[in-house]
Amino acid sequence: MAASNETRAKKEDVEVTAETLKEDLASLREDLSALARQIDQLARSYLEDAGEQIREGLDEAGEAARAKVGAASQSVEDYVRARPLQSLAMALGLGFLAGLLWRR
């Protein structure tokens, strides 16, 4: 009878351990799901910040390029106004060379 009681006690211990294990696994599953949601939110936030920084950098680069083009255009205009005959001769020469290259 003592062996039967001991077997029954062990069986109850195994059942309690199995139930505890099921509860722990369910809790772990919930924790992992919450962690995955937090990682997703952090990744989205990081990507949004990175995208904003890239956009700002591109805007700044575009503004700098526009300023340089404007300065170069003004420089060419000033050169043409200061030396109209030289500018005309250079334009004719470049046109002639372009025509030769275009023929070939």
Write the layout of secondary structure elements.
Elements: H1 2-82, H2 84-103
Please, could you describe this protein's structure?
This protein has 104 residues and is mostly helical. The chain has one domain (2-103). Helices cover 97% and strands 0% of the residues. It has 2 helices and no strands. It has helices at residues 2-82, 84-103. Helix 1 packs across helix 2. The longest helix has 81 residues, at 2-82. The mean pLDDT is 90.
- Total helical segments: 2
Topology order in helix (H) and strand (E) letters = HH
Instruction: Give the low-confidence spans.
Output: none
In terms of structural class, how would the helical and strand content be classed? Answer: mainly alpha
Features:
104 residues, mainly alpha
Quick summary:
The protein is mainly α. The chain is 97% helix and 0% strand. It has one domain.
